[in-house]
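Researcher: We plan to redesign the surface later, but first we want a full-length starting point. Tokens attached.
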């Protein structure tokens, strides 16, 4: 994908932790964080995928929930200020794809955080633009 790091790149997890959320052992050195995949405490791999990135008006967040519960998707600016809660709903165990509305969000770089039952499922970076690239 355009401007995304290739699998196995030495730039993945090669950045410096500046206090902002990231996936992996360190931030990636590139425009976009590589897909979020890690081992949960129960031992089952969990993956979160946001697309398209950059996003114009509508984005999709695909994830697997291991338990039923309240799912919240929070959007932060790069200073860590909460910009919006993009989703707040009940989910059942299994695969989910949430349609997220960005029409009221300004252009910029943001951090999304997906939480189920107060437990962080994943974090990632996204870019919001008004014009498709």
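Model: Full-length starting sequence:
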């Amino acid at each position: 994908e355009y401007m995304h790091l290739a699998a196995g790149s030495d730039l993945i997890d090669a950045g410096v932790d500046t206090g902002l959320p990231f996936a992996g052992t360190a931030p990636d050195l590139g425009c976009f964080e590589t897909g979020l995949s890690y081992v949960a405490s129960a031992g089952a791999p969990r993956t979160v995928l946001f697309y398209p990135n950059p996003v114009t008006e509508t984005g999709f967040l695909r994830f697997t929930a291991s338990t039923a519960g309240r799912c919240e998707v929070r959007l932060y600016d790069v200073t860590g200020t909460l910009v919006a809660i993009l989703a707040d709903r009940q989910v059942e165990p299994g695969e989910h794809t949430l349609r997220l509305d960005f029409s009221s969000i300004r252009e910029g770089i943001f951090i999304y955080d997906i939480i189920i039952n107060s437990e962080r499922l994943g974090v990632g970076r996204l870019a919001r633009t008004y014009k498709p690239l």
